[in-house]
Automatic annotation (TrEMBL):
Organism: Ogataea parapolymorpha (strain ATCC 26012 / BCRC 20466 / JCM 22074 / NRRL Y-7560 / DL-1)
GO molecular function terms attached to this record: protein-arginine omega-N monomethyltransferase activity
Highest taxon in the source lineage: Eukaryota
Pfam families tied to this protein: SFM1-like
InterPro entries according to UniProt: SFM1-like
Signal peptide, first to last residue: none
PANTHER family: PROTEIN ARGININE N-METHYLTRANSFERASE SFM1
Name used for this protein in its record: Protein arginine N-methyltransferase SFM1
Length: 202
């Protein structure tokens, strides 16, 4: 099963790097393809953590990288009418993510992909997810766990101390300890961003 992220961000933010690294660790480097990087991109433009994990990338857009007419594509779309099901594993070769599911507030940039691909769409519930959560949820469903059986937490509050907390405006999968699954290093980044925000007031 191949997962394609059409990179629709400007460059690689720290947040995006952590998400993409976690996705590679979750599904394996051979199963993730990052498309639509800017023309002229070289290996040296790819952040070192992603290079070290073996990120597969291309400057081609997804409809140029994959033979759309001869492949079974599924675009994960928050506005799709049909929810992703375990049986969809037999129906599709590629699952495509806009690299945009973490937008807050959400923007319908997935419509750009729909126009290009003209493929079937599936939904992962009705709330926004980060891209790594969307890939994780998709993998769990395709491995046999129905969406309604996955344990989620919506808009979790990440607390750093008695007086310091940040609410995350997304839906996350819970781990066995009932904690939201975040990319490795994300808590430190959230804390750092929170400290920066507080500094703006002084």
């Amino acid at each position: 099963m191949k997962y394609i992220i059409e990179h629709m961000e400007q460059g690689f933010t720290e947040w995006v790097i952590l998400e993409y690294c976690q996705i590679i660790r979750d599904i394996g480097k051979d199963n993730l393809i990052l498309t639509s990087l800017p023309n002229g991109t070289t290996d040296q433009d790819i952040p070192q953590p992603l290079r070290e994990l073996g990120l597969v990338w291309t400057t081609k857009e997804v409809n140029e990288y994959v033979d759309v007419s001869d492949s079974k594509l599924c675009l994960l779309d928050p506005r799709a009418e049909i929810d992703l099901q375990p049986t969809d594993k037999e129906s599709f070769d590629y699952f495509i993510f806009g690299g945009i599911l973490g937008d807050h507030p959400p923007r319908d940039r997935t419509s750009e992909l729909k126009k290009k691909l003209k493929c079937e769409t599936r939904r992962l519930g009705n709330l926004q997810m980060t891209t790594d959560t969307a890939v994780r949820t998709t993998k769990m469903i395709l491995e046999g766990t129905p969406f309604e059986s996955i344990q989620f937490i919506d808009y979790p509050e990440i607390r750093f101390s008695k007086h310091e907390a940040t609410e995350m405006p997304f839906r996350y999968v819970l781990n066995e300890n009932k904690e939201p699954i975040l990319p490795a290093g994300m808590l430190d980044l959230i804390k750092k961003d929170s400290d920066k925000t507080l500094d703006d007031f002084f």
